[in-house]
Amino acid sequence: MNGKTLLLGQTLGFAGDPFSDGTGAARHDAHGGVLIENGRIAALGDGAGLRAAHPDAQVIDHGRALISAGFVDAHAHYPQTAIIASWGKRLIDWLNTYTFPEEARFSDPAHAADIAGRYLDLILANGTTTVASYCTIHPASVDALFAAAQERGMRLAAGKTCMDRNAPDTLRDSAQSAYDDSKALLEKWHGKGRLSYVITPRFSPTSTPGQLSALGALWAERPDCLMQTHLSEQVDEIAWVKSLYPQARDYLDTYEAHGLLGAGGLYGHAIHLEPRERARLAEVGAALVHCPTSNTFIGSGLFDMAGLVAEGQRIGLATDTGGGSSFSMLRTMAAAYEIAQLRGHALHPAQLWWLATAGSARALRMQDRIGNLAPGMEADLAVIDLASTPAIAQRAARAGDLWEALFPTIMMGDDRAIAATYVAGRPIPRTNA
Ligand code: GUN
Ligand code: ZN
Predict the structure, then answer these.
(1) Whole-model pTM?
(2) According to the UniProt entry, what is the EC number of this protein (predicted)?
(3) Which residues surround ligand 2, an ion (CB under 5 A)?
C-alpha cells in the first residue's frame, strides 16, 4: 500500500519478556494507533494524537478490537494440511499411516501448489503471518511454499525435509542428494525478499549418520540459515533413537555429533529431555519449540515450560500441524495454558501472547523484524475481536482489565476472532479461508 495508513484500536506490544520482566513488560493502549508506511510501522502511540499529527493518512478504525503483531508459528508441516485431525495413532504409527502417504503425493507439483496456497490462506485467516514449515523430500514442495508466500508478501521460513531411511521408497533421498538439493534450494530462496531457507533433517530415526553429517556440513557452510528438526517427542521414539545410534550419549547427541547443534537450531517438542541435553541446549542458546496441541493429540507428554524458562532456554510456540490439531495460535495458546496447569503452573495471558508473537519471533531470530509492535518493525499484524462469539462476549463483558478481556479469546477463540490480518501493511482479503 502506498502512502500512510493509520490503524486505530486497542494496541498490545511488549517492551520486554513477561517471563523475566513481569507482566509490566506489556504495552497496552486502550485508544492506540499504528501508523504504517512502506510496509513498516512508522509510529505507535495514542490514536487521536497520531491522527492529528498525520492528517494525510488513510484511517482504518478497528474500534475496540485489539491490534497485535501477527502470530508467529515456529514449527508446522504444511504438507499435512489435508490430514489434520486423523484419528487414533501415536507418533510412529501416525507417521506411517497418515503422514507418509500424504507427503508422497507432493511429488506432484500441482498438488504441492494447491496445498501450499490453501495452507497459507488458512493461517492468515487465523492471524498467523509467519511460519517455520517443513516441506516434503521433494524440492518442488519447497518451491511451491516459497512461491505461495512470495505471492502473499509473507515472511516465511521453510526447508526440504530430508530422510534417507525408515521411510517409504518414494520418500527417501540420500545423504548426497539431501545435501545437493538443500544447497540448491538454499541458494535459490534464502534471503530472497522475506524468505528464509531452513536446513531440515526430519529427525534422527529417518536419517543415517551420513545424512546428518552432510546436513551438518551444509549448516557449517551456511550458518546464516536456521536448522529445524524434532527432539524427544515420545518415549518410544527416544528408545528407537538410542537403538539406531548406540554410541550416542542421548537423543540430542545424535545431532550434536553431526554438527546439528547450534544457536540457530530449532528443536521441536523437546519434552522428555535429560539433564545433559537441557544444559547443552541452554549453553548454545538453541530454541525449543513447544507444540502443545500436538503433544496432547498424539499423546506425547507435558512440556516443562516453567522449568525450561527458569533455565533461561529460548522457547517458541507452534501448532505442529497436522500432528497438532489446529491452525490457530489462539487454540495453541489455550493448549499451552492447559499443559502448564497440568504441571502446576498458570501461564499469564501476557506470557501466552508473548510466546505466540515476540517469543516465537525470537526463536526464529527474527525479533528485530516481526513479532512486536514498535516503530521500524514490519507491519505484519493481527486485529483481534475480543467479543467474537456470544460465549466470549458475555465473559469479556465482565472483564476488569485487558488480561481478563483477552483470556476468554485465548481459551475459546478461533478464526472468528481475527477481525483482520495485515501482511507488510497490506490487508488480507478474507475470501479464501
Ligand atoms: N517427528 C518426525 N516427523 C514428525 C512429524 O511430521 N510430526 C510430528 N509431530 N513429529 C514428528
Ligand atoms: Zn513437527
Answers:
(1) 0.98
(2) 3.5.4.3
(3) 268, 320
The full length of the chain comes to 433
pLDDT in tens, 239-291: 999 999 999 999 999 999 999 999 999 999 999 999 999 999 999 999 999 99
ipTM of the complex: 0.99
Separation between Cα atoms, residue 33 and residue 53, nearest integer Å: 12
Pocket test for ligand 1, best of 136, 166, 230, 232 (most atoms within 8 A of CB): 230
Domain extent at residue 14: 4-70+371-427
Assign residue 75 the CATH number of its domain: 3.20.20.140
Ligand 1 pocket by Cβ (under 6 Å): 77, 91, 95, 99, 202-203, 230, 233, 294, 298, 320, 323
Please name which ligand lies nearest the alpha carbon of 297: 1
| CA 402 to ligand 1 centroid distance, Å | 36
Q: Residue of the nearest CA to atom 9 in ligand 1? A: 323
17 & 104 share domain: no
Last residue of a domain, one of 339, 363, 387: 363
Distance of CA 343 to the CA centre of its chain: 23
